[in-house]
Design a protein that fits this description.
Number of helices: 4
Shape: elongated
Number of strands: 0
């Protein structure tokens, strides 16, 4: 049975992590390329299996690169703060003419 991610906050987190990997990616480092591809697939397919695969790739990346990626992701998340926060409803009032 396949489960789909439909939580906007979770999808946003994956997109932020994917962008962080893009920004810290170093040419020639296979693990970072594999992580980048796994995160792209997770964003595209939105399945829990793809997210698990991406998480497994992240665990294989060198600790220093994970630290860099995490720092970049936190910076990006701070910039996008409130992106999926509940929005206030705007209620328009109409006047009744008598």
């Amino acid at each position: 049975m396949q489960h789909w991610l439909d939580d906007d906050a979770a999808l946003c987190s994956i997109e932020i992590l994917s962008e962080a990997v893009e920004r810290t990616c170093v040419p020639g480092i296979l693990e970072l390329r594999m992580l980048r591809n796994a995160l792209r697939e997770a964003v595209k397919s939105k399945t829990t299996e793809a997210v698990k695969t991406a998480f497994g790739m992240f665990a294989r990346v060198d600790r220093d690169y994970r630290r860099r990626i995490a720092h970049e992701a936190l910076t990006l998340a701070a910039q996008q703060k409130g992106r999926f926060a509940p929005r206030e409803r705007v209620v328009r009032r109409t006047r009744m003419v008598v």
